[in-house]
Amino acid sequence: MNELFEIYKRIEYLRNNGVKMKEIADHTQMAASVLSSLYSSVLPTFIGEVKKGIAEEEALDYALSQVNNVSKKRLLGNLEDMKERLFELEPPQGGEKRKSPFWDMMARESQVSAQEAYNYSGIYISYSLSSAADALKVEPYLITASENNEYVRVVHMSAYNTTHSGVGLFNNHTSSYILFNERESPELALFTIYLQLPMYDFPKMLKGLYLCLDYNRNPIARRILFVKHSDSTDMDDFLALKGEIIPKEQIPDDLLPYYNYTCQPGDFIKTCTVPSPSLDTQDLEREKKMLEL
Question: Is the pLDDT of residue 81 over 70?
Answer without folding.
Answer: yes
